[in-house]
Every structure is written in structure tokens, then in C-alpha cells.
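In keeping with the milestone schedule agreed at the kick-off meeting, the structural modelling team has produced records for the first pair of proteins. Each record is given below as a sequence line and a C-alpha cell line. The laboratory manager (R.T.) confirmed that both were archived under the project's standard naming scheme.
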Amino acid sequence: MPARKSAAARGSGSDTLDPRALNRALLHRQALLQPSSESALAMVERLGGLQGQAPNPPYLGLWTRLTAFRPEDLTELMQTRQVVRATMMRGTLHLVSARDYLAWRATLQPVLRRLSLQSDQGRAVHDMDLDALNAAGRALLARKPLSATALGPLLRERWPDRDAAAMARWVRSVEPLIHVPPAGVWDSHQAATFAPAADWLGQPLSTDDAADAMVLRYLAAFGPASVKDIAAWSGLQGVRAIVARLRPRLRAYRDVHGNELFDPIDLDLPDAGQAVPPRLLADFDNVLLAHAERSRIFEERHKPTIFTRNGIVRATILIDGFVRGTWSMERGKDTAAITIVPFARLSKADRAALGDEAARCLTTFAPGLAHDLRFEAGDR
């Protein structure tokens, strides 16, 4: 049930939401105020997908949000083709439901083509007949799933003077392709093989414009949010026009800087004073990547610690709903350990609560091993 809106939720004015009000709204929508009893598939759809750059973070992301998650739940969804790993919003890898993939992927095609043309592989193939290149790649992958490494030389048989790797990367980036399991499942580190989505899912992609539906889903999962936030999550162009079209279905707020924020009209906000237990968030967690303005979840001074120069988004801890440190898990032959690095000294209560979360995480993802918990000094 939606949380009832209160005066405290509105922040510093009747229509103004301060970072704490936005934080509580975000955590409520993300099942981080209170874990959900929903199924893993329902949560994947509720979130509009999970960041999937690496195999394990989506599992951790669901574990954090669900009361009864087992790693095999997500693996089974991928193996039975109910959830797929594919290039989606912003040209990044996501795990999305098959339903959402089929409904959304064609709408994202202009985004993915634009981003690919701006990339190294785009510059390497821009003077080619790209429709012919796409068709050739699609035909080869329809025969059997192939890795990019295997696809490139086959494309080069037709275009012997072109860069095989660049051609394969272009096809991988632009064509509607699925990462075939076991790529993307827990602890899988083998190179992905690709299959045409329509073949893998047994039905064609919808050609209907899904932009309105995507924006409404985003706001339900991450709102209230601005036009810039929506564009940052989706990569779509023309977001301002989409929002204008949807205005009769939206409620408007302002943030403390005066930026207009939008939310589905039927969704209320939780009490901004609501307590939030400490949480462990996955690497690349959605809440860190889904807004242009991110003060609702972390302070700008901590960004270099969370986002590394080589594109990694570290796993983080939430204290009082905001990022207050990082954590990592290492598993050996006999022992699994979680190391927590807070940005500042933790209270005894927060330290104990994080210890409980770490124990629960290790029980789920490292059964049968001896467990260890370490706290290290971090930024002050």
C-alpha cells in the first residue's frame, strides 16, 4: 500500500521536498525502508530492471529488498527466460523481465544507436552499410549463440578489410540481443554469448512507443524526479515533451533548488522522519545511478570513493538512509568474509545492525563456509 503523505514528508515547504524527504520516498519505492514479500520477478519489474554490469550485483540487490530471496530464484528466472540480461537503458547492461524487454526495447533503439555511433566501434564502422552489418550479425547469431570474439571473424569473412572486433561490438551494442545463460548468473565469469531476442523469447518485439510507460514506471520506482533525472536513467531524448504529455497523470513538487519534480498522482510519500535500519547495497545499485542529482542518497564529497575511475560503482552501506561507507565480500576455499569501511565512526547500534546484515548475507551467499566480519577505518 502507498505510504500516507505527511507534513514532514514535504520537507521545507508545502510543495518543496528536501533531500531527506526524497531519500525516504526513494527507499520506500525501492523496498529499502521495509523489505518486500514480493516474488523476485515482481521486484525486477517494480524496479524497472536491475543494473547488470556484473553477474552478482543483481542477486545482492534482490536479497537486500526481499524477505525471502534465494539466489536460485533469479537463476531459474533467467534459465526459464522470464528475466533476461541485455543492453537497455543508457546503453548499459540490465536484468529486466521478458515482458518489459519485449515492450521497451524498440523504444530504446534510437538511444542505443546514437550511443553506439558515438563510441569507438561506431567510429570504426560508421562508413559501412550498417543495415547490412546488422543483418549479417543477426543471421549468424540466429544459427547459434556466439560470443563477440567468435562473431567478429565470421563478419570479417564478408568484410575482410574491416576491424573484426569493432564490427562484433557494433552488432552486440545495436541489435536486440540476449546474453544467453549461464552468462549473467551468480558467479558466472565466462564470456557472454548472444542470441537474437525474438528467437530467444519466441515472439517479436513490440513496435508500440513505450516511452510513456517507461517514464511512469521510473517515477513509481525512483520518484519524485526531474526531467533531467528521467533522462539520466533512460537515455531517452525528448523527455520534457513526454512529461508534458503525462502531466494530467502527475503531481508536481520542487526540490530545495527550485527544480520541478514529478510523481504519479496516485502515489503518496512516506514520513520523512521515518527511521531506516542500516542496509547493505549491491555494487552498481540502482539507487546510486538513477538520478542526475543524487543528494537524496549520497553526499557529493563521497562520490570519488563510491565511483572509481575505471567505472566500478562500489557496494555501499546505508546509515539513516544515506550512503555512509562501502563494503565488500570475499570468498575463499574455507572462509567467506565481509569487510565494512565506514566513512566515519559508527554507533554501537549501527555497527551491530550491520553485523546482523552481514551475517544474513553470508548465510545466503556463502553457505557451508566459515564466516568473518571486519570493520576497517575509512574516510573521515
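The second protein of the pair:
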Amino acid sequence: MLRRGLAVAAGLPLLALTLTACGYGSQAKADSTTKTAAEGRKLSADTVRIGYFPNLTHATALVGIQEGLIQKELGGTAIEPQTFNAGPSEIEALNGGSLDIGFIGPSPAVNGYAKSRGGNLRIISGAASGGVKLVVDPDRIKTPDDIRGKRIATPQKGNTQDVAFLNWIAGKGWKVDAESGKGDVSVVRTDNKVTPDAYRSGSIDGAWVPEPTASKLVAEGARVLFEESALWPDRKFVTTNVIVSQAFLKEHPDVVEAVLRGTVKTNIWIRTNPDKAKASANAALKELSGKELKPEIIDPAWKSIQITDDPLATTLKTQAEYAVETGLLKQPDLDGIYDLTLLNKVLRNQGRPAVADAGLGTD
């Protein structure tokens, strides 16, 4: 079982590895400006509302919109971007009909699918792998065993990093109440925006967090104990998926396919032009938040992100199992959560192999 592998990996010496992840709080923000449509034929919808986080693990959205690569594929259909600070608010927008397509982490996608009994969304592509690190106070924590009795932050109860950390704790044989976060380790659910302040004040001893929060803590004197990627086969696990409203997919498959052509081409551009892509993502973050990331933060964070079209479906399945084992999720029926038909069509037209849905695709 993978949990046993996680426990073994956790006992390894310090690792310097990869990644980024999910949310930044709980509020959503709709951008007021619709991106100007490109010249060309309008597709079956006038606009497509695309949601994402101001987060480096959402680089496909940041860069694809910033550089116009997604808009180019949409022609006369305009993008209406919306930014969110966490998965639950994005799922709410998708389920409420105010969002069409979103970039989101695996746990919110699973929760949203399960709560709607499979009625509201589909995962249609991957976007990023990795980007999560256990970062600690080097004076208080020298080895993974030193985590016991310490106060470690995660972004939100039940979010992707929270579930992963609880699973790692269980693999060590320690006990923590998933609801309260109390036990052999104190799991302190803390908004990523304030985690650096909490670390600086000494109220936490470390954090299991995505980028760029991890690198912000390192800039405050923390160090990376290990990266979550070290705990997974081939060091790959899904961090960000692309999801779509089932209603929008049914009514506007041509728009969804165009967005996927744009994301696939964006990912190629990112991999081919890493420095330009990093600068583009930082420019997008500055436009969204008013601040760009300093080199000492964005450089290590960017290197750790793996951009991918593959949704790494087997790892989402495993993460859902972890959530069930921690008691934060009832056993979900995930049959049909993936519809990779259009993505595989796009990949096939480029002469690339299809990606798999781990048996969780639509019939």
C-alpha cells in the first residue's frame, strides 16, 4: 500500500525536490475585465468563464491567459477570467452556474463531484504536478521524527495538503484527530497568506504547504525537510486539474476543445521557454495581486513545478482514499469523474499519445 511507502520515504535524509499546490484562503474574486476576443470565428458561446488561483501551480492559466495562447484558439469567443483563493469557492461557482471551466486541486474536485453525486463537473485535463513541501524551523526540527509534538500548518481542513499530511502522520504510527487537528502532532489550519507571519512569530514550527508559500518560509529562515514528490512513484502526483461544468461541456464542446488546445499549446510553450514563462507568470501575479514575487522566492518555486497535460488519475484515486482513511470524506463513487475525450483528441491531432483515466472515465 502506498501509505507504507510514504512512511518509509519520510524516514529518508533531507531531500531537496519539487513542486506547488492548492489554495490561498476561502474567498473568491471575479475579475471585472473580460479579455478581448481575438479576430476570427465566434464559437458556440460568446464568452467562456475560466477560474484559477493566483498561484504558481496554476501556471497554465496564468501564462495561457497572459500570453493570449488560450484566447488565440477561441477566436471570437472571449475569455472572462475569475480568480479564486481556494477550491471550495471555485466549486461553488461551478455548481452555481457562474463559472464554466476551472483550474483546481484534486481534493476540491473529488469533494465537489461526490457532493453532487457526479452531477456537476468533469475533470478534462491535468495542469500541474508537485509543488508541495514540508518546511520546518531548523532549530526545532532536524529529522522527520522530530515532527512529533510540534505545530505544523496546513492551508485548510480537508484540502489537498491537509489530507496528505494527515496520511503521512498516520504512516508514522502517530494519532491525530482529523477534525480538530489535535494529537501527537498539532495540525494548525492556517491561511497560506498568513502562514509566513505565523512562522515568523513562532506560533508554528513548520508547514506542509504549496509554493510559493514554502519558498516564502525558506526566505524567513526555514528549510525544506522533504518534498511531497519524494513520497510518490516517479515523484509525480496531481496538484492541479482542469475541470468543466457538465452543462457547459454538453452545450459547448467546441469551446471546451478550443480551451484545451490552448492549454496544451501553453504547456508546450512553458516547457520550451521556462524563463519567459516564469516572467509571464510573475507578471500575471502582479496584475492580479499588485505584487510580483521576488527572485529568491519565484526561482526555487518555479523549478519545482512540473507542467503536465496528464491528469495523473491514479494519484487522484489514491488521494481520495487518503481522505476516506482520515475520516474527512465518506467513500465516494468517482466513476465518471473524468472525461478525457476532447483532451485525447487534441493530443492525437498533435501526434502525441493519449492519457489515461484510471478506469474513472465516462462510458
